[in-house]
Prior knowledge:
The complex is a heterodimer.
Chain A: H1 2-6, H2 9-17, H3 23-36, E1 43-46, H4 48-64, E2 74-78, H5 105-112, E3 116-121, H6 157-164, E4 171-175, H7 181-186, E5 190-193, E6 213-218, H8 221-231, E7 261-265, H9 275-290, E8 294-298, H10 306-321, H11 339-350, H12 353-366, H13 371-392, E9 398-402, H14 417-421, H15 428-433, E10 437-444, E11 450-457, H16 462-476
Helix pairs in contact in A: 3-4, 10-12, 10-13
Chain B: H1 10-19, H2 29-43, H3 78-82, E1 88-89, E2 92-93
Antiparallel strand pairs in B: 1-2
Amino acid sequence: MSELLDFNLVEASEALKNKKISSLELTKAYLKSISDTSSLGAYLEIVENKAISMAKESDKKLIDGTARPLEGIPIGIKDMFCTKDIKTTASSKILENFVPTYESTVTQNLWNDGAVILGKLSCDEFAMGSSNETAAKGNVINPWLKNKKMSPGGSSGGSAAAVAARSALAATGTDTGGSIRQPAAFCGITGLKPTYGRCSRWGIVAFSSSLDQAGPLTRTVSDAALMLNSMAGYDQKDSTSANLKMPDLMDYLDKGIKGKKIGIPKEYTQDGISEDIVKFYEKSIDLLKDEGAEIIPVSLPHTKYALPAYYIIAPAEASSNLARYDGVRYGARQEASSLDEMYELTRGNGFGDEVKRRIMIGTYVLSSGYYDAYYLKAQKVRRLIKEDFENVYKQVDYILTPSTPTTSFELGKKQDPLTMYLNDIFTVPASLAGLPGISLPVGLDKSGLPIGIQLIANSFDEPGLISTARVLEMSAGFNFIADGAAK
Amino acid sequence: MPNKDTIVDVPTVNKIARLCRLDIPEVNKESLTNDLNNILGFVAQLDEVDTSNVEPLASVTGHKLPLRSDDVNDGNIEDLVLKNAPESSSGFFVVPKVIE
């Protein structure tokens, strides 16, 4: 079985097309690995029968020569994506019995391209969190240093843990302020957040609509390219979807970076960042320089205000989006004698603490008398942050930063909400500016935990992002496997 | 933005909870108030930024909102719409009695 798990997405796809392996045996190997690694708690729902029947369908197409780009590839889906007839809870108690009657555009795109669904992956409740601890059914365990019970990061913690544990060949995630890149960094895998508008938001449980983007979590940069090829695309059903064709990213894997300019923002090496991360950050700069890139110091002066602006804008949008959970149209309902009491009890009982905090903050900053001071102010600062990037992209092609200030931390060490928010300090700025970013593993810290480095490109330059990330990936040569991964 | 530490008190928290229809148990109110004050105190650092003459940014797409013709393209799915409702009857969502 083990050699089947050794294939990354691109290799498995080749092996399937050359008929060296079948989708059924590959899918069965992953179903076994889901059961072998079940103590990590990455999956909320496993759809074995559906996986087997999709795999058989793929095998037919592989034989009759009508194979599609992701034919027969078994993947996991973050529980934020609505999947028709498969329970979709967003890791929340309020949606514990929700079974969508429709399919999200991104997942439909993946099935149209031949991917096989293994199941639904845990995440922070409504994607609000950075440790996967806000999930209603409990945290996921990072497969790295498994016995120490480290956080997989969040909010796409289940997705990152499953890919690192080899219980999914790849997974979907959503990223609002870092929810793909931070867990990818914590779990030693690759996570790509595309440009805002690249992937349709239709059918994704809404958190903060001006920031939410779907993207892939994979083992390698080329895997991410292949998967994003299928996920992305214009969709009439999302009014913010970009009507812009993305080139085939697989054509950009080996373009190299000779003559490209890489910006190093001085604001990203601040107090509180771990020494090992600084060391590998500096090493990554040197590696890119050796590959022919020009390294240019740059400044993004409003970086320090990104997190406070985010913690006004995201909760404001969340408080509005989550108003739909009213116990009337879907989700759990608490019985009460009056309508208002029913709303209050349903929502009070159905939402977890972090979600409640964000709804409260969002409601406050949007309320009469505070709207200008908080919400409008944050939107103005958001423009300044976007302008910082626009100015820097006049001088450089890409920006290199650490993905996170620290590596993974132990689960259950109670942190106050603000300390938790600081996890996303390096990922939030690109989110506010709508820019594509990728986190890839470049090394291990002293305790043996993965370190992620982030590359940020200009809007819609996913092709260049892939070329550059691939160069860093090849020269960093990260080839460690988590001790908690399926064998 | 007001001074840190004293931004919201328990009566204000009650008022916000009422606005967003969230039942907050009495025992949790003090810690929630503290959390909200910490968060609001943290975001108050935006006051340091000069934003005079800066337009608010609501969308990063830069494109105009696309329009489509107003056609029904998914009609006759009443059953699907009501499928996840906690209570429905004769094609309607059912809520507790609103008018006495």
